[in-house]
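User: I'm putting together notes for a lab meeting next week and I want to include a structural view of one of the chains we've been expressing. I don't have a solved structure, so I'd like a prediction I can at least talk through. The sequence is below, exactly as it appears in our construct file.
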Amino acid sequence: MKTIFFGTPQLAVPYLELVREMTDLQLAVTQADKPRGRGMEVSACPVKARALELGVPVLSPDKLKDDFDKIAATPFDLGVAVAYGKIFRPDFLALPKLGILNVHFSLLPLLRGAAPVQQALIQGHTKTGISVFWIRPGMDDGPLFLQKGIAIDPQDNAQTLFEKLIPLGLTGLREVLTRLQNGEMVQTPQTGTPTAAPMLQKEDTLLRPADLTATELHNRVRGLVCGPKPKVPFLHNGELEWVQVVRTQLSTQEFTAAPGTVLSIERENGILVKCKQGALWLCTLQPAGKKPMPAADFANGRGLKINDLVFTQNANSRRTF
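Assistant: Thanks for the context. Below is the predicted structure for the 321-residue chain, given as structure tokens.
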């Protein structure tokens, strides 16, 4: 079975390797080379780098349509896409004999979109999984070949959840490729009410205790650990400082205080802040240009005291990012 692989980031590399192992891989297609790292030097994405190491031909067009003729000239039975990051036009979908499969990190139709792992946590889901489905022109709405589900542990964050879902997806894709090679074709329509997992924006990183419950803030920190970093605003000495939040912990105690009030500062737990509902321990913080530090050390360094307020008014100004 001749294949083309479409993918870009590091998480897609094991899938490239699996497709090469199990099929006659003709070509890898990735996003274009971009500036990366501290020096912002133009370099290849992880999938391109690994494909070249494996001796697999690579195309990295700025726009997929730019290399349509080259892809169309490559005979292939099946396309496999994992975190490619580009939309396939109908003429591309018509090229392979079987179609193009996608490995998506949610139980479709739940969490269609660019950030299903992060949004599963932010939205407070207790279960997720992987879906291997046939790409159609709509957003993640094609028929399913296979799904596998797992529970989300209360201590999971985006990093640990990815670490569980990537091997689960590999198991699913291996099964699908085996069944296709045995002549089995599955196209099961998605059922249920779709939900969205949109790409994360800067506004999603804002942690304002007056606007969100402790659980909502905690879930947002869990979901953002691998992406744009969550930030909470502090006001001290008349200066507004946005501080990245690395780790939080829910409090089981009940408090009567204004949202944003610092309720306690403890060496082991950090800074306890009253939220719209409930209270949240800020355990590990990272000021701009600094390494992550215990929140209690941050409080001591800034002179933060019990009954101070985590600043919330006008904290949505874009100038504070």
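A couple of points you could mention at the meeting. Helices lie at 13-22, 46-53, 68-72, 90-93, 116-122, 158-181, 214-223, 295-302. The longest helix spans residues 158-181.

User: Perfect, that's what I needed.
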